[in-house]
Amino acid sequence: MKALGNLYRRRIEPGRVGSPELARNLAELSNDVRREVGVLIDRRGRVISVSVADAKGTEFPDLRMGENRLSGFHLLHTHPRGGALSKGDLSTLFLKRLDAVSAIEVRNEGQPGLVHTAHLTPPGTVGEEEDWRILPPVPAFQIDEFDLGAQVQALEEEIARAARTRVAKKDHERAILVQIDQGEFDAEERLDELAELARTAGAEVVHRELVFRRNLKPGTLVGAGKLEELTSRAYHLDADLLIFGQELGAAQAREIEAATGLKIIDRTQLILDIFALHAQGVESRLQVELAQLRYMKPRLLGAGAALSRIGGGGGSAGGGAIGTRGPGETKLELDRRRINDRLSFLEKQLEGVAQRREERRKGRERNAVPVISIVGYTNAGKSTLLNAFTHAAEEPRRVLAENKLFATLRPTSRQGYLEGIGPVVLTDTVGFIRDLPKDLTRAFRSTLEEIGDADVLLHVVDAASPGADTRLDAVNRILEDLGFRDMPTVVALNKADAANPEALDRELERTGGIAVSALKNRGLAELKEALADAVSGVQRAELARQEEARALAAQYQ
Ligand SMILES: Nc1nc2c(ncn2[C@@H]2O[C@H](COP(=O)(O)OP(=O)(O)OP(=O)(O)O)[C@@H](O)[C@H]2O)c(=O)[nH]1
Ligand SMILES: [Mg+2]
Fold it and tell me: What is 369-545's CATH number, 1.10.620.20, 3.30.2350.10, 3.30.1540.10, 3.40.50.300?
């Protein structure tokens, strides 16, 4: 024990891997305890930690890993059973961004044998096999010949140069997507959707990966080995964001972040972020902030050190890093009490808005104008269809339609006209997505409930992208959850201009829908007819109900 403690007093010449004396000490000790013994050395040649463990078990100080630098330590340790650097040694080198890792082989009588040393290679060498370079082994008495200082300097210059060009040309966060495939038939489609979400949030997707896992690891989901691989990829592709296609628990996110040193975001956070970017108007802003806070609360409270990162991105809707954007004035850097205060404030505000809206709704009922609610998966073309329907060519009446997910968050109503019916109100609303995060469903409850005020639903389906049927099912499931599944519904198979004709035919058959192109103004007359039929069906049913009620009343008179 004492001998181990003495190692702390050792110093070596700065810029060297070690000294022959230190190598001898370590080999001797290692021979005595029959275990690996290692020291972590800083750039001034001081021993800052001693451990009896293999490289992975070495105790590291709280390493401040700036993304542009190495950690400033190198690890010198023994291999009591001999042998070159192990996989574990090398991955520790990589993950801890060590200046170098060296292994001293221990001979029979505790004599130091060959010393093996490896250091990192510059980033961006994709295609090259390894993240590190292994130097030819040298005998322990030559351990101080290699100029580690010069090597480190060259490497750091290289890294800094890469970082400078990156800052110069990068206006998007570079992201790696990970979708876990547990054998679902639509895993690939989910990955596509994740890529669309990432793009909408402003990320540049530099790599996407479907990871097949029948069983998930509780801590890291995909396992340490896969995380290592992803970290290596991120290093070479200059990515700093890892986006997971499934929701991560607070502890999972932290563990994965600790293991990779990357910023970790899950699908829910990504969706919340897009909502935050697109939120306009008092109500949606409140709703989004409420959903974000609810989601972040357990994560912020357990986060400790990670908190500063979450809060640091700047909270304005326009700027800031992905996952940190918020519509409210408040950034997400709140403590527990303030979170709770803010949550109840938002809830109260939203109640007020909902009430005012309720009053507006009553006003509309008195008008007795039929209402058609446009629903559907996000990006299906709902807003484009509303524009086409209401001939809202002129700017002020036009609603925003763009190739982004969740472009529309706020319900918008426009007056339209149906032959044989007269004026109708068409309402465009927030799009759906499979596995809609429940914090969002809750926050947008009143918006979603407004759908139920309609007389008829117009379900818009994007028939041009693959997986139209799974998206249609996802929408139906959400409608069912909301209790709207038995409302009269007309299905519009939109983007018919871009759809594969056979797939379109199949969907027409399956749904009894109508093929339209909102963009090219095709099929709209037929769609209007179907809507008029549905509306008059509702009106007839309503008349019959009133009739019946009158008859019933007459009986009791
Ligand atoms: N090819 C083609 N593209 C269309 C058609 N209708 C809409 N789009 C495109 O699809 C994209 C999404 O349209 P939006 O109207 O914003 O879709 P949305 O359903 O309102 O989407 P969110 O509000 O984001 O949920 C836009 O880029 C439109 O130009 C169509 O009939 N054909
Ligand atoms: Mg829209």
Answer: 3.40.50.300
Whether 170-269 shares its CATH topology with 369-545 is answered yes
Cα 400 to middle of ligand 2, angstroms: 7
What pLDDT shows up at residue 304? 46
Report ipTM for this prediction.
Answer: 0.99
Domain 170-269: CATH superfamily, name plus number: GTPase HflX, N-terminal domain (3.40.50.11060)
Nearest protein Cα to ligand 1, atom 21: 379
Residue 426 main-chain phi, psi, to 5 deg:
-110, 130
Ligand 2: centre distance to CA 405 (Å): 8
Ligand 1 pocket residues where CB is under 6 Å: 376, 378-384, 401-408, 431, 494-495, 497-498, 517-519
Percent of the chain at pLDDT > 70 equals 88
Counting ligands in written order, which one lies closest to the CA of residue 433? 1
- E strand or H helix at 493: strand 489-494
CA 184 to ligand 2 centroid distance, Å: 29
Ligand 2 centroid distance, CA of 377 (Å): 10
Closest ligand 1 atom to the C-alpha of 378? Answer: 25
Q: How confident is the model at residue 1 (pLDDT cuts 50, 70, 90)?
A: low
Q: What is the 3-state secondary structure (H, E, C) of 219-286?
A: CCECCHHHHHHHHHHHHHHCCCEEEECCCCCHHHHHHHHHHHCCEEEEHHHHHHHHHHHHCCCHHHHH
